[in-house]
From TrEMBL:
Short name of one Pfam family: Glyco_hydro_42
Keyword Translocase included in the entry's annotation: no
Membership in a protein family: Belongs to the glycosyl hydrolase 42 family.
Protein name stated in the entry: Beta-galactosidase
Keyword tags: Glycosidase, Hydrolase
Ranges where the Glycoside hydrolase family 42 N-terminal domain occurs: 13-383
Naturally occurring in which organism (per UniProt): Nonomuraea indica
Residues in Beta-galactosidase trimerisation domain copies: 394-593
Length: 649
């Protein structure tokens, strides 16, 4: 489904319920001035649309839909179910979510519902039905926007209803209690359960929780949120089969839900992303999330459903985006596969919790830098319609997995490893090398990739281990980091020598883990140094690329490479410094025969190929000359691809 393919979308969340009908007219005029093509309408309008249970007030929304339609502006219409109205929690306090400590959360903010609550789900579905009946045939309707950012605030609920659902989910997964006991290793600490009634959510307990229980809880909670989305999607598909359905997911370093398992339910992937203007490396993280969204949709275009025109309200001090930064970061999304650039929100709210969040129209109106820059961008995107629908080629994949993320960050691991830092450490050198990557789950089909990069895949299924092995055997290349292949999907150690899942593939055995203390560094014979972690590696066929020259494992191998089948498997037993990591990645790219999008670009210039265009993004505060183009600070060039960019700048 690629409903935006004839042009790039440009727009914002539109919340007209906060404004009077006179303001709506002004909005439409300004939207046309800014080149808006699409808005996401009514995300938080449940209380306005359904002021009392079963009584709907659609008059205002009819008018807004008609105004937008008449102006030629597409509508991504929200079902409005993200924030229940006050009457729901008054009449059904059991719909309110309960946290790990047993505290029932109160209304007065948003997303205050238990994902397993049948009452919430029924009320949400019935609102979605009303919306579909009312607007299903409206010419402005182009997309359904279900809920909003599932799991943003409430990822899980520990109430008794959720506990019951959790038990059903576990019965489905394991069949009987013996299998559950085995999966959860319950002989440890006398945790064996003999009655389903004893199976509980991982509520606050005296000390460390059963890690397999924690993991299944995260899986279950992700599925519970997905079930909410699916329940609404099902009725929308039935009533309006031609209208695509999506919900917006979050590009941020929080494993709120297993998005890879949600992807098949999106007709188009929609990303919300708020790179931090104060963070000098924000654009590298953003590039990662854009690559992830494109990959979730199997390479199809996605939408950047939300970003900020300028300051973000919940991260004080609210630093505005300096001139050019909104344009640069918006182009980055388009370069990496987005077919729409949209903001939260159209008009800055006069009241409420997020009134200091930037918008397209500010508190002072439209006579200002933010509006002018947005309008200029709208006009510019209108000239790039040939980009819409274009594909972004990638020869390298970075493996990223939510179960691994959850598992790796549980307590009582040998060292403090954090997935955001670990993934960044592998992604950034590829970004600096201007090599475009896909971001894939470990069980993905890897046949299209010359090189697969695997950051710290502690938890690993048999299917993933087999897929990675076959990738290398068939001539692919692999770069894998320490503490991979250690546990199965129930967080049980793969016995018989680390790393159980990959010993044969890597041609080595890890005898012990030697996490390094804060500030402790070990030199590397290949140059540079390492910290954080040191594997005691015993080669079993792998060649040694670098050894430790100091630290607890001085003289022992730190980096190895193993020829396996027709490919190679490079293994990193530690965390090298940034330059050493870049060198190793460059070496592995050469070995795999992967060329950059454009070779020899100045540092801080990002090159991405999309369809028949080459995007050059200058993230520097100084001008550069790159690939024949002159780029001012924070400037963008979108060039036709007239030569083979691999041949040089
Ligand atoms: C998103 C959310 C929006 C708005 C925005 C700015 O997470 O979907 O409704 O809150 O952040 O904070
Ligand atoms: Zn609950």
């Amino acid at each position: 489904m690629n409903f935006l393919s004839d042009r790039l979308g440009f727009g914002a969340d539109y919340n007209p319920e906060q404004w009077s009908p006179e303001v709506w007219r002004d909005d439409i005029r300004l939207m046309r001035e800014a080149g808006v093509t699409i808005v996401t309408l009514g995300v938080f309008s449940w209380a306005t649309v359904e002021p009392e249970p079963g009584r709907h007030d659609f008059g205002w929304l009819d008018e807004v839909m008609d105004l937008l339609g008449a102006a030629g502006i597409d509508v991504s219409l929200a079902t409005g179910t993200a924030s229940p109205p006050s009457w729901l929690s008054r009449r059904h306090p059991e719909t309110l979510p309960v946290n790990r400590d047993g505290v029932r959360l109160s209304p007065g903010s948003r997303q205050h519902y238990c994902p397993s609550s049948p009452v919430y789900r029924e009320a949400a579905v019935s609102l979605a039905v009303q919306m579909a009946k009312r607007y299903g045939a409206h010419p402005a309707l182009k997309l359904w926007h279900v809920g909003n950012e599932y799991g943003c605030h409430v990822q899980e609920c520990y109430c008794d209803v959720s506990a019951g659902d959790f038990r059903d989910w576990l019965r489905e997964r394991y069949g009987d209690l013996d299998a559950l006991n085995a999966a959860w290793s319950t002989t440890f600490w006398s945790q064996r359960v003999t009655d389903w009634a004893d199976v509980l959510p991982p509520r606050t307990a005296p000390t460390l929780r059963n890690p397999a229980q924690e993991l299944d809880w995260r899986r279950f909670s992700s599925d519970a949120l997905l079930a909410c989305y699916r329940a609404e999607r099902a009725v929308l598909q039935e009533l309006t089969p031609d209208v695509p359905v999506t919900t917006n997911i979050m590009g941020m370093w929080e494993p709120v839900a297993d998005y890879a398992s949600w992807a098949a339910d999106f007709d188009i992937v929609a990303l919300d992303i708020y790179p931090e203007p104060k963070d000098p490396a924000a654009h590298i993280d953003a590039a990662f999330f854009h690559d992830q969204m494109r990959s979730l949709g199997g390479g199809r275009p996605y939408m950047m459903m939300e970003t900020a025109t300028s300051a973000i309200s919940y991260r004080p001090p609210n630093r505005p985006k300096r001139t050019g930064l909104n344009r640069l970061w918006s182009h980055q999304a388009v370069a990496r596969g987005a077919d729409a650039v949209m903001y939260f929100q159209w008009r800055a709210s006069a009241g409420g919790a997020e009134k200091f969040h930037s918008a397209v129209v500010s508190h002072g109106g439209s006579d200002n830098r933010i509006f002018r820059e947005a309008a200029a961008l709208g006009a510019e995107l209108a000239t790039l319609s040939d980009v819409a629908g274009g594909r972004v080629p990638a020869e390298v994949a970075v493996v990223h997995d939510y179960a691994n993320w959850w598992a790796l960050e549980l307590d009582a691991r040998p060292g403090e490893l954090r997935i955001p830092e670990r993934v960044r450490a592998h992604y950034a050198p590829l970004w600096h090398a201007n090599v475009t990557v896909d971001v894939v789950p470990p069980e993905a089909d890897l046949s299209a990739y010359k090189l697969v990069v695997v950051p710290n895949l502690y938890l690993c299924t048999d299917a993933a281990a087999d897929g990675l092995r076959r990738h290398v055997e068939g001539g692919g290349h692999l770069l894998m980091s320490f503490f991979s292949g250690i546990a199965d999907e129930c967080d049980r150690i793969r016995l018989g020598g680390y790393p159980g899942a990959f010993r044969e593939l890597l041609g080595l055995r890890v005898e012990e883990f030697w996490p390094l203390s804060d500030g402790e560094r070990a030199g590397l014979s290949s140059g540079g140094s390492a910290d954080l972690w040191a594997d005691h590696i015993v080669p079993e066929g792998a060649e040694v690329l670098a050894a430790y020259t100091g630290g607890p494992l001085a003289g022992l191998p730190a980096v190895t490479r193993h020829a396996y089948g027709a490919g190679t498997a490079t293994y990193l037993g530690t965390r090298p410094d940034e330059q050493a990591m870049r060198d190793l990645v460059a070496d592995t790219l050469r070995l795999a025969g992967v060329a950059p999008v454009v070779a020899g670009l100045p540092a801080g210039v990002e090159a991405v190929r999309r369809g028949s265009r080459l995007f050059l993004l200058n993230h520097n505060d100084h001008p550069v000359h790159a690939a024949g183009a002159d780029l001012a600070p924070l400037d963008v060039a979108v060039l036709p691809l007239r030569h083979d960019p691999a041949k040089g700048a």
